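Field reference: sequence -> structure
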Amino acid sequence: MAWRDGDIVMLVVTALIGGIAIAAAWFGASGSATVSHQTAWLNLGVAGFAVFAGGTCLWLLRGRRAVGERRATLVAVEAAPPVTAPVDATASWQFVRGTGMRKLHHPGCPLLTGKPVEPAEPADGEPCGVCAV
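Structure field:
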């Protein structure tokens, strides 16, 4: 569950307090004939709305944070295993390309994890956008 019990209680409490303040401001302003008396009720209504909106925003942000943390654990990029094809360390280039792929990668690029690779030259393909070749 994305929210804890305390988060849901906080949402309900802030919604009740904000709603009661808005309703009280509406009833109080409707019974006042002068603008100066209605201004005080308007302030109460704005404060009630701020409590209501603030509680709702905090509730949504806590849920978004929980979803983001779960997503990060599911999509964590693990360290890439060693390249399956030998790369000549004495060459001036250090690029590889997955078998049948167009883009060039550094040997440790996570997109090549578990794929057979072959050495490549800079003119052999387009640069990868992930490993910043």
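Note: The helical segments are 5-30, 35-74.
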